[in-house]
Amino acid sequence: MSSSEIDAAVRERLSSGGSLYELDGDLLRQLQPDFIVTQGLCDVCAVSESDVRSVTRSLAVQPEILSLNPNSLSDVLATVEQVGESVGMISQGRAAAAELRRRVEQVRERSRSVGSQPKVVLLEWLDPPFSAGH
């Protein structure tokens, strides 16, 4: 399908109350997870939090659902710590986030010495086309 055809199909499915993904409830029952990590930023990118909650209601033991919604790099790094805290691995979560912050700072330092900084465009979705008013 083209990007515009995918966009139309996704919009139709979501507007009719449908979901793009289906969770395997039988597999979740087998796995018996203590935690499920999901995100609530985009129902197109991943299974919706409401679908996760709906399926987990049928499980004998209710897992803790961590719905992460980072909007920036610093938010992403904070969620690493949040997951560590939630699963009882506070020091490991903090250490992992600190290491990622250190690596980001290394990139920041290296980029300061770059003579000219390139202009970059990130295209995540090609159709419908981007317009200046949005």
SSE arrangement:
Blueprint: H1 3-15, H2 25-31, E1 35-39, H3 49-56, E2 64-68, H4 73-86, H5 90-112
Relevant terms:
single chain, 134 residues, mainly alpha, two-stranded parallel ribbon, 2 strands, 49% helix
Helical content class: 40-55%
CA gyration radius, whole angstroms: 20 Å
Largest sheet: 2 strands, parallel
Q: Low-confidence segments, ≥5 residues, pLDDT <50?
A: none
Distance separating the two termini: 25 Å
- Give the strand order of the largest sheet, numbering strands 1, 2, ... along the chain: 1-2
Q: Would you tell me the structural class of the helices and strands?
A: mainly alpha
Q: SSE order in H/E notation?
A: HHEHEHH
Q: What would you call the shape?
A: flat
Total DSSP helices: 5
Q: In percent terms, what proportion of residues is strand? A: 5-15%
The total of beta strands comes to 2
Please, what is the average pLDDT? 85
Report on this model:
With 134 residues, the protein is mainly alpha-helical. The protein has helices at residues 3-15, 25-31, 49-56, 73-86, 90-112, and strands at residues 35-39, 64-68. Strands 1-2 form a two-stranded parallel ribbon. α4 packs antiparallel against α5.
What's the short story on this structure?
The protein has helices at residues 3-15, 25-31, 49-56, 73-86, 90-112; strands at 35-39, 64-68.
